[in-house]
C-alpha cells in the first residue's frame, strides 16, 4: 500500500514508513508555507491521493528522485494533445462498446443458463405449433412435448406461449438498450460527450428492483 503526495505538479509515491517519517521530520516553514528544496526549486507539498486515470490525460511514471534523502517515485499528469485525441477516442469507444456488450450478455444470462442453445434454436418451431393448437388445430410436435409432462396439447401450447412472452420482454428490453447505448457511443463527437454516456444504465427490467 502506498500513499501519494503532490509536489507542485508532480505526484510523489511514498511507502507508509516514508510518509510517517517525513511528517515527523523537520520541514522548513516560512512565509511561503511548508516546502521541500529540490535543486533550484522550492516545491510545496500537499497530501493528496494519486489522481485516477482520466480520459484525455495520461499519468506518466517518472524516475526515482530524492526528496530529503528519501527515494520516491514521481508521477506526472499530462493532458493529451489534439493529435493524440483521435486514438484516445477510438480506445475509449472500443472499451465502452465492450462494456455494453458484457452488460447485455449478463442481462441475458438468466435465459441462456435456463435454456440450452439447442432448445432455444427450436423455439420458433414450437411457437408456431403452439399457435396452431390454440387456434383449434393439432400438432404432432406439441403432442410429443406434452406427453412426458402429462399435459394436454392445449396446456402444452399455453406453457410454450407464456414462456415466449416472458422471453420477449427480456429480449426486447435488453436488446433495445444495447442498440441505444451503442448508438450514443457512435454518435459522440468529443471525448467529453463519450465519457458522459452512462453505459451502466437501462439494464433493469421494468418493475424490477
Structure characterization notes:
The structure is a single chain. With 209 residues, the chain is an alpha+beta fold. The chain folds into two domains: 3-79, no CATH class; 85-195. It is 49% helix and 22% strand. The chain has helices at residues 16-24, 85-107, 109-114, 117-121, 123-134, 140-146, 153-187, 191-195, and strands spanning 3-7, 10-14, 29-30, 33-38, 41-47, 57-67, 70-79. Strands 3-4-5-1-2-7-6 form a seven-stranded antiparallel sheet. A hairpin with a 2-residue loop joins strand 3 and strand 4 (33-38). Residues 24-48 have low confidence and may be disordered.
Write the layout of secondary structure elements.
Elements: E1 3-7, E2 10-14, H1 16-24, E3 29-30, E4 33-38, E5 41-47, E6 57-67, E7 70-79, H2 85-107, H3 109-114, H4 117-121, H5 123-134, H6 140-146, H7 153-187, H8 191-195
Antiparallel strand pairs: 1-2, 1-5, 2-7, 3-4, 4-5, 6-7
- Approximate strand percentage: 15-25%
- In sequence order, what are the helices and strands, one letter per element? EEHEEEEEHHHHHHH
What's the mean pLDDT score?
77
Overall number of strands? 7
SS field, number of helical segments: 8
Radius of gyration: 30 Å
The main pleated sheet reads as: 7 strands, antiparallel
How is the largest sheet built, in terms of strand order?
3-4-5-1-2-7-6
Oligomer category: single chain
Shape: elongated
Integer count of domains: 2
Q: What level of helicity do the residues show?
A: 40-55%
Q: N- to C-terminal separation?
A: 37 Å
Low-confidence parts:
24-48
Structural class: alpha+beta
